[in-house]
Amino acid sequence: MKKILILTASPRRDLLIDEQIAKKLKELGNETKIAPCLREGRDTVLEYQPDVVVVPPVRNMYSRDFCEDIKRFGCGLVSRHTEPSCDWPDYKAMNQKQQSEICGLIQYYVDSELVWSEDEAQILNRRGAKFKAVSVGAVGVDKYLNPEYKKRYKDKAKFKKKYKFTNNKTILIQSPWGFADHSPDLRIEEVDEFVKDNKGRDRHLDMIEALHKELPDYNIIVTTHPGVVTKPYIQRLGKLGIPLDTVSTSLELMLNSDILIHAGSTMAIGAHFLKMPAFQFGDVNLKDSTNWWHQSGKIMAEMSLNCKNPEMLAKLIKKAEPKSNINKEALEKLREGRYGIMDGKATDRAAEIINKIEGKFKFAWPRSTHDYSQLTILQHPSKAIADANCGICKEAFGIMRPEYKEMIRVNVANVVKEAELVNKIMLIFEPVRGTYCPHCGSRFMPVMP
Ligand SMILES: [Zn+2]
């Protein structure tokens, strides 16, 4: 039995996924704990003292340092991708800068990295890292196929009572996230990609108002992506008596609604597995974004029928049958590419891999933030000597760094008080015969790396 800590990236999106992984890990004989990664991650590692830790994808220096600390405590470490990334056609269409972003701009170490699709695993395994990326399938899709979640969250009568709905059928409208105004204290780069689009928001709110008039026999509920500014929604929807839910998970909202309107959201895929008709209005995938996801293939914009105006939406909603209307061909492309297998078992496969990771928590001395190096005893030898390579014979050699010479000068000056004498002594650190490769004697221009 191991103690396994799962750190959740964004609870509203990821908690249900992590619960499924934890359940399987318990079945395999482990003890588990789930905690939010942001803000609480470090505390929880120290308090719970796990043998293995599962973290969100490592995308910045803070996460990299956190991973290093977890390894120093002797824990096994797995990173789990919370979103699908690119497939081979996406990757090949990218420029070099985008490709290197996909492969990660910072180096880090984990014992295993769980990704969605086989293509992504293959792409990431070209990084030459000391660990492997492994594809487990679309973990984000499992929750839609989980009968326990259906039992737990589906209660249409209760849902209608909560929102004082009187009609039989409910339309769930997901706002596009082009109007994102990132929480200043929790800036998420992915959200930065979307420029604010007030016109787009007004168009979206106009659509909601038109449907409200056009379809009096339907209940309407609106939800926004995390990070979207809600004030304009509250103002307009409040006048119409339409509720805005920014707290519930998309699964809970979808299980208690009958029709979905989205703007190219991945919720279209959830709707398919919940056998619910979905329509698209507006398109976040067409926005002038620098994000490759929205430029390459625009596959997310092909999942549902794209409606140009509220009249068309109203007409289609009246005729909609209670079943999936997803574009099967587009879904198949997603299965073969970005998403990978969508069988409801991806979280089980993830748990099986996590179960095999070894580790044992052992308290490690906290690293000091001070550098107690002195002239003759250095934390890192590279502080004194920079690595260089001869351009002619290719042999490696070392060059003393100017900063290190400065350190010597200060020390010499402490002992020898006359400035002129200090300068003379320091001459011994100049290459008297010029800069030659110490192996083959070819001349080089000294360039500090
Ligand atoms: Zn040489």
Care to describe what's here?
The structure is a single chain. It is elongated, with a radius of gyration of 29 Å. Helix 3 (61-72) links the parallel strand 3 and strand 4. The chain is an alpha/beta fold and 449 residues long. The protein has 3 domains: 3-141 and 346-355, Rossmann fold (3-Layer(aba) Sandwich), CATH 3.40.50; 155-327, Rossmann fold; 371-449, no CATH class. The chain has helices spanning 11-27, 41-48, 61-72, 88-93, 96-102, 118-124, 147-153, 156-163, 189-192, 198-214, 231-240, 250-255, 267-273, 292-295, 310-319, 328-336, 346-355, 402-415, 419-426; strands at 3-8, 31-36, 52-55, 76-80, 112-115, 132-135, 169-174, 218-223, 244-245, 259-262, 278-281, 305-307, 385-389, 396-400. The chain contains 19 helices and 14 strands. The model is unreliable at 179-195 (pLDDT under 50). It is 38% helix and 14% strand. The strands form 3 sheets. A 6-stranded parallel beta sheet has the order 2-1-3-4-5-6, with helices on both faces. Strands 9-8-7-10-11-12 form a 6-stranded parallel beta sheet, sandwiched between helices. A two-stranded antiparallel sheet has the order 13-14. Zinc ion is lined by residues 390, 392-393, 395, 437, 439-440, 442. The site of zinc ion has 8 residues, from loops.
